[in-house]
Amino acid sequence: MALDFSFSREHEAWRSHVRNFALRELQPHSRRWDEEGSLPREAIRKMADAGILGVIGKPELGGSGRDYVSLGITIEELAAADVSCALIAWQQATHTHFFPGWGDDTVRAVYSGNCVVALATSEENAGSDLSAIEVTAVEDGGYYLINGTKIHVSTVPGADILAVSAKIVIAENVKPKMVLLRVPTNLPGVTTSVMEQMGARAHMLGEVHFDNVRVPVNATLGGAGDGKAIMYARFNVSRCLSPLAALGAAGAVLRETIDFSKKRIVYGRAIATNQSISFPLVEHHAKIEAGRLLAYRALVANDLGEDATADAAMAKWFGISTGVSVIQDCLQMFGANGYLRDNGIEQRLRDVYSFLFTGGTLNIMKLILVRQLLGAEYAGLRT
Ligand SMILES: Cc1cc2nc3c(=O)[nH]c(=O)nc-3n(C[C@H](O)[C@H](O)[C@H](O)COP(=O)(O)OP(=O)(O)OC[C@H]3O[C@@H](n4cnc5c(N)ncnc54)[C@H](O)[C@@H]3O)c2cc1C
What we know:
The protein contains 12 helices and 9 strands. It has helices at 9-26, 30-36, 41-49, 68-81, 83-98, 104-111, 227-263, 275-303, 309-333, 336-339, 345-353, 362-373, and strands at residues 117-120, 136-140, 143-154, 161-168, 177-184, 190-194, 205-216, 265-266, 269-270.
């Protein structure tokens, strides 16, 4: 069978739905949300109404049961209008989809924009190395008692329910299992605070402290010991979404820059007539297209149920480094106007910097590729 690089008619129709929605309902407010730096509930409700939060969700729970490619299209188009909303949307879609055990009512509430869920796994000494977590869950009757602190958690403060990774301490000398626990943020003993970030400010980043927080043993997302595996399954999709977000934002900036370069007259001619301007513009276009192909190829592999670990890592490293460098270069082509807040490019540059870290850094993506290309003994990652 021939290789087919085209989107289906349904994909194209969905893209134009999301694009029109995002340009109309999100983009005009993007600057205000950045300045306010708090979770934009109005945007979350509007995204729910537009069918965006349940894009890959089960129809019986209010989702539309589309494929991962449709989710990629969604995130690319949202990010072209507002990066924070793209981050929020992909987290809601993937947390509900990949972590079993939220409960049908919670999932329905997320798809209708009435509940926000988040993943709290990073800690002071456990960022790239997920296995190094120190938050504990100790069984006490039919409950777990959770203690410790999570940091860098997206949509906190604001999120209603967290998936919290914790070590189940069974006994001394017994290797602890990792579990993901469903923890409402209004439980006694849970406190949250904001961590001020440079970009994607409306998506929020925060710290969560657990002081003897009691949750029932059956508040487990997946089985005890499954925590890492279900987080990794989600990574294979989410690591295709962050590059599409970076490339979506970069594509929008590139289109604005091409327009500007044809209008800006310096030395009596449009700056676009200088090849030192036009050549990088077309190179950026080609790199964005290459990055999109890598990301969508990895999403197709996910849709087919194939192992997309390496493809997703490659897509993430290439797409995000491309997105960041395109926006950086375009900002300079605008001259001093690019540097001004009113222009909007500086916000997009700050926003896409978030993708250098969320879901694993670009170095970690390279280590995943080293493991595949050179062998696990050269990567030094825990299995
Ligand atoms: C915007 C944003 C959103 C986030 N959202 C969440 C969230 O929702 N939930 C959550 O739990 N966490 C979240 N995080 C945290 C994110 O997952 C971590 O920041 C990331 O995994 C990296 O961990 P770290 O920052 O602790 O860096 P570290 O692991 O301390 O690494 C520091 C540096 O060393 C490099 N490095 C480490 N080991 C190696 C190695 N072996 N070889 C080469 N280089 C190496 C890294 O690439 C990095 O540059 C978010 C972070 C950001 C910025």
